[in-house]
Amino acid sequence: MIVLHARPSPGFRAAVDRIFGEGAVVHVDEAAPLDSVAAKITALLHVLTPVTAEFITSAPKLKLIQKLGVGVNTIALDAARRQGVAVCNMPGTNSQAVAEMALSLMLAVLRRTPFFDLRTKAGEGWSADPSELDSVGEIGGRTIGLVGFGNSAQLLAPVLAALGARVVYTARTPRDVPYACWPLEKLVAEADIISLHMPLTEETRGAIDPLAMKPGAVLVNTARGELVDESRLVQALATGHLRGAGLDVFAQEPLPAGHPLLALPNAVLAPHIAWLTPETLVRSLNVAHENCRRLETGEQLLHRVV
Length: 306
Prior knowledge:
Layout lengths: L1 E4 L4 H11 L4 E4 L14 E4 L6 H6 L5 E4 L9 H7 L2 E3 L6 H17 L1 H9 L21 E5 L3 H12 L3 E5 L9 E2 L2 H7 L2 E4 L21 E4 L8 H9 L5 E4 L19 E3 L8 H20 L9
Parallel strand pairs: 1-2, 1-3, 3-4, 4-5, 6-7, 6-9, 7-8, 9-10, 10-11, 11-12
């Protein structure tokens, strides 16, 4: 039994049926536990709902946890290793979507798109105080720091450079690219815009301190919420230390009602959808289908993490 644990859109469901065959995949809503399928499941198509050690040990036939995406921090990897369950991800399948979302969040913060959208729809677009326009800006001429230089950052960098930005990056290993590689501390302190493109690990958790960023800078996060000290991010935005932030990910998801980020006018927020486009889903489901086929035939799995 192949199980998709998600809340799929009609288009997502249709793509699953088209690629796997109608009825070949059992759908379990992301808010529901997997207990009902634990005895029969052989492959789990995992999106965001955490895959716990308890579930893994309760599923005797489980052979594959296939992440539809890249980050595997929501999977109990040690438990999977102990139970002999393969864990695979799919680097590169969502890179285009994430790069485009990071760019859109930069522009939304710099041009204050949500603010002017709401005013215009309310018939007040031309009556805003002229001083509101003093706080917009352009990508051109700014130093943009990419933290991590994987697939999405590599797609984004030349676009930013073409718009006139000075692109710098930090990575464990310098790359042969026409951009300067800076230490993380220097990048955080000096970049006008910081965009996060690194995985969440114990080493990277809380690695970005927004109060250590340059005054007036912008933070964009399409990676993982826990990379950033969120309480200090709220402080940096509320005090005006940062111009703004474009956030697709958070330490707690969904954001609870009353969370201070929800009330900050200089925060542009999205519900962890940077990766989620129909194009990404088709690419991802094709990889997942191939790995399920390989699981049946005993062939080597693609992009195996565990």
